[in-house]
């Protein structure tokens, strides 16, 4: 197994220089269990766990390995195991807030070049959900591509394409049908050697079926969507990095019933660039876009240039990010306090030289 085929490049080579000459090597996380990681290396697949030091110094979820991460390891090839000492700095990171009231980050995939946002052309199609995924995709650092799947269930795919084009300006959009094997060739240019693609979307949108068509083999289990509302059943239950014959890697992810935003200021601006640009052209710099004279956003709403539903979505996600920021600020203060508590304890426990 060649590391370049796994996505190794000059960025990671430079980051690894600090560890060279110490008996370490590198691997890429393919599968994450509770406290164990399946890691691809030049010595083959190894089952790895993090060191006690890494676990002790970690202040949050982002300090631990995630699927797609490059990690510094001490391999024990004869045992089929390894120890993870560090996670190399990521080039991209697709994150969401964990479900529920807890303010914690969940890293869905790391070091991704292109993220396929898969949406089915059935009764579960939702433009507002696509906007939400686009915010997180732009924030991740990867390039978003929208795949409108299950075209065999739709009489007029072009109508949906036009809807998506209105909220995803400049983002490539491809229509596919795994059942008819249509549009699969449109994703081939993204599957270049050394590149990593991640598939994101709700349950039942056809991610597993699409991967099977890309691979050319029914490797991934497939379930039908529920009758009546076309909502999906979970087929993929874990995140996994899969190597393709083309030399690319694909990260399959479980369907997300909810996608709560996480630290997405720049991604938000990118996804709603049309509204942000309008806001910048208002007569007053402190315009609240309500009843102020010369408000470009209110004018665009009145003329139909900007749809009310898109602006409502913009405001909703903006409020969600502001609420998350307030909660995250309190959590960061708590983490900083905990970090210094650990440092103080380690200093006190250090034996005194006599």
From TrEMBL:
Binds 1 zinc ion per subunit. Residues 327-341 have a biased composition (Basic and acidic residues). Pfam families: RsgA_GTPase (PF03193). Its EC number is 3.6.1.-. It comes from the Bacteria. It is found in: Cytoplasm. Zn(2+) binds at residues 282, 287, 289, 295. The keyword Lipid metabolism does not apply. The keyword Cytoplasm applies. One of its GO terms (molecular function) is rRNA binding. GTP binds at residues 149-152, 201-209. Residues 327-354 are annotated as: Disordered. Gene3D superfamilies: P-loop containing nucleotide triphosphate hydrolases (3.40.50.300), Probable gtpase engc, domain 3 (1.10.40.50). Residues 102-259 form the CP-type G domain. NCBIfam families: ribosome small subunit-dependent GTPase A (TIGR00157). This is Small ribosomal subunit biogenesis GTPase RsgA. It comes from Brevibacillus fluminis. The gene is rsgA.
